[in-house]
Amino acid sequence: MTDPSSSPSVPASACVAALRQCGVGHVVTVPDWVQLALHARLEAGEEGFELLNTCNENQAVTVAAGLTLGGKRPVLVMQNQGLYNCVNTLRAICLDSRIPLVLMVGQFGREFDNFGQPATGSRRNMVRLIEPLLDTLGIPFHRLDSEADLPCLEKAYAQATETGGAVVVLVSAPLAWR
């Protein structure tokens, strides 16, 4: 029997539980295909979570920053293409203004044969370049490759609070519908 904690598909229910444990009350998002199961679960109604859909990733960052300044604990959910889109806003909000935010970024376009391998080995630029981009920007990141990696969410919140800036959790594979 396969150990489910080593599967590249993390259950959406486990993500919800981990976010709840982190004290998250708001999910600010531009819907992401990789995290579609999480969106569906939240849209169906998860007690204690408010889902805020935004028009674009720049708006998501500024809404989450406002929530943070208002004493709330949001998480941003977007895909890798969206992170590329909002680099300047992340620079202004998280690097310059030092507002702590945690982003769950789905690795849209990642090849099945690249799961369990370094993302930098992907044949797709948007997957291959995201970790070097985050390194260049000085934005710490964690990899959510399996259910066993879910404690990285708590680490990301602690890190974002401690450093006063963004921390990214890269969601490697589509989340499971359980």
Automatic annotation (TrEMBL):
Lyase listed as a keyword: yes
Query: What's in the keyword line of the UniProt record?
Result: Decarboxylase, Lyase
Q: Which Gene3D superfamilies match?
A: 3.40.50.970
Q: Where is the Thiamine pyrophosphate enzyme N-terminal TPP-binding domain?
A: 14-112
Instruction: Provide the protein name.
Output: Thiamine pyrophosphate-binding protein
Species of provenance = Variovorax robiniae
